[in-house]
């Protein structure tokens, strides 16, 4: 096996070293078998936060592991980029105060957070009315705000009837799963402004449109976060804080600890199960283990060949849970000119293709910086356009609200997640009507020796990095308990 197969990518090793973390030389845990397979206790497919957490927990429990990653880097739906000399996140980036499992990892690895900049006035431009406002309450007209508030209260009340991670067991699940978010919105919210705001918020959270996915799935997402407000809020919500130097570095530091047990550039093509174990096949070699944890989102896990084939329920689920569409853009400026004008940098609009966007300054930022998104339908429309065309659209949209200074960035970086070969979208998978009630149990139930993890399987903060961490912890416990049970039975 080459050095590249045995370690992190060269780019990641350099990034870790630059952050003050040496990549330790670690001996491979795999034991060579006569037939050329390498043997470990557990094989983990995917080196995102779910897979790396599962590997870390299993190692602490005394199990040998290998983590097989298709991409040339670790981190999954988090990724580092450089903007004006600063390492930033061009994937997932924020953390909220109730995302305690991610915060615990940050503390373990010495990664600090800083509050998301939220001083000054926000801009909202919805249904033909533009306003500036402060704080978390949207700047809608009074009547529209009352409708919006009533809808939020109704949604939260329904979400409280769901026990995660099995929303299909809720008493009203069948009715909720028979409709989309859009059909509920049309039936229960009369005003065009609150409807349009809901559509913009849903697009920003799920990277898809309200007509694309199940109302039950939407309520389950709310239930996992503790309501709608934590999902969309800055202070106290999911956008509360940024990581200084990127959240991605936490994944890199976990991978550095695992050393040669992390194998990049190793897309899994086949998983074979038999009475004595499981074999995982990549173009970098074969591994054999008692158990396998697959952390890839359902649609990408479906691209692996399984022997024997997956049960109909699991296969049906994977055909019905696509990833959202998102393009993330970060821009640097010589100064945060919007702050000089009393603005926070947050803009929510139903007029622009690009948006929402936020101030993304941290103590490391020289000058000013913004971050924003093409989400849902706009991402679909712009993913296959040229980078120059996307940049022109971004600058036009920013200038519409922030003035001509926005047209002169000193740095620009983007990530078209919908085109990323081993990700194909983000930041989370979404389920259409009827999927959870028809196929939901297959999201969690092991298939023989194969266990499932990933943020989509989390009971708390599903769809977020914290949910991925929690899912990795859960899968590691599940596998360790199963292996211990088998060991006791064999000794009896």
Task: Identify the notable features of this structure and list them briefly.
492 residues, alpha/beta, FAD/NAD(P)-binding domain, 6-stranded mixed beta sheet, 5-stranded parallel beta sheet, 36% helix, globular, disordered N terminus
Descriptive report:
With 492 residues, the protein is an alpha/beta fold. The protein has a domain at 3-76 and 247-310 and 447-491: FAD/NAD(P)-binding domain. The protein has 18 helices and 23 strands. The strands form six sheets. The protein has a six-stranded mixed sheet with strand order 1-2-15-14-13-17, with no helix packed on it. A five-stranded parallel sheet has the order 12-4-3-16-23. A four-stranded antiparallel sheet has the order 20-21-18-22. A hairpin with a 2-residue loop joins β9 (121-126) and β10. α4 (100-108) packs across α18 (465-491). The longest helix has 27 residues, at 465-491. The chain is globular and about 70 Å long.
Give me a quick take on this structure.
This protein has 492 residues and is α/β, with parallel strands linked by helices. Helices cover 36% and strands 20% of the residues. β13 (268-273) and β14 (278-282) form a beta hairpin.
């Amino acid at each position: 096996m080459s050095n590249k197969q045995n370690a992190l990518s060269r780019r990641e090793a350099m990034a870790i070293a630059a952050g003050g973390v040496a990549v330790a030389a670690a001996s491979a845990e795999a034991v060579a078998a006569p037939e050329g397979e390498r043997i470990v206790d557990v094989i983990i497919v995917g080196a995102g936060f779910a897979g790396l957490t599962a590997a870390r927990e299993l190692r602490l429990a005394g199990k040998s592991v290998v983590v097989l990653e298709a991409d040339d880097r670790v981190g999954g739906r988090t990724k580092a980029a450089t903007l004006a000399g600063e390492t930033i996140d061009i994937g997932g980036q924020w953390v909220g105060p109730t995302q305690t499992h991610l915060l615990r990892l940050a503390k373990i690895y010495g990664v600090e957070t800083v509050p998301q900049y939220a001083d000054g006035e926000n801009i909202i431009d919805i249904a033909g009315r533009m306003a500036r406002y402060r704080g978390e309450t949207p700047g809608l007209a009074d009547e529209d705000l009352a409708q919006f508030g009533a809808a939020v209260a109704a949604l939260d009340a329904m979400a409280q009837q769901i026990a995660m991670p099995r929303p299909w067991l809720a008493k009203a699940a069948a009715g909720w799963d028979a409709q989309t978010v859009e059909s509920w919105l049309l039936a229960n919210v009369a005003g065009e402004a609150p409807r349009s705001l809901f559509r913009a918020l849903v697009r920003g959270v799920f990277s898809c449109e309200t007509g694309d996915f199940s109302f039950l799935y939407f309520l389950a997402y709310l239930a996992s976060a503790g309501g709608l407000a934590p999902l969309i809020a800055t202070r106290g919500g999911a956008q509360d804080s940024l990581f200084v130097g990127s959240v991605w570095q936490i994944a890199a530091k976990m991978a550095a600890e695992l050393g040669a047990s992390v194998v990049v550039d190793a897309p899994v093509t086949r998983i074979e199960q038999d009475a004595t174990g499981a074999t995982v096949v990549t173009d970098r070699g074969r591994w054999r283990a008692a158990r396998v944890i697959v952390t890839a989102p359902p649609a990408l896990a479906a691209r692996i060949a399984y022997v024997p084939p997956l049960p109909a329920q699991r296969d049906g689920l994977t055909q019905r849970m696509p990833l959202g569409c998102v393009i993330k853009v970060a821009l640097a400026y010589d100064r945060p000119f919007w702050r000089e004008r009393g603005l926070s940098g947050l803009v929510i609009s139903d007029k622009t293709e690009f948006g929402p966007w936020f101030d993304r300054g941290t103590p490391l930022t020289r000058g000013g910086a913004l971050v924003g998104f093409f989400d849902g339908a706009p991402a679909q429309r712009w993913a296959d356009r040229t980078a120059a065309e996307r940049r022109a659209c971004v600058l036009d949209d920013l200038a519409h609200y922030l003035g001509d200074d926005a047209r002169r960035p000193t740095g620009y970086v983007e990530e078209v997640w919908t085109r990323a070969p081993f990700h194909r979208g983000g930041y989370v998978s979404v389920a259409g009507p009827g999927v959870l009630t028809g196929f939901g149990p297959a999201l969690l139930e092991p298939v023989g020796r194969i266990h499932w993890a990933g943020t989509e399987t989390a009971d708390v903060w599903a769809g977020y990095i914290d949910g991925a961490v929690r899912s990795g912890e859960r899968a590691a416990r599940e596998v360790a308990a199963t292996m211990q049970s088998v060991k006791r039975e064999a000794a009896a």
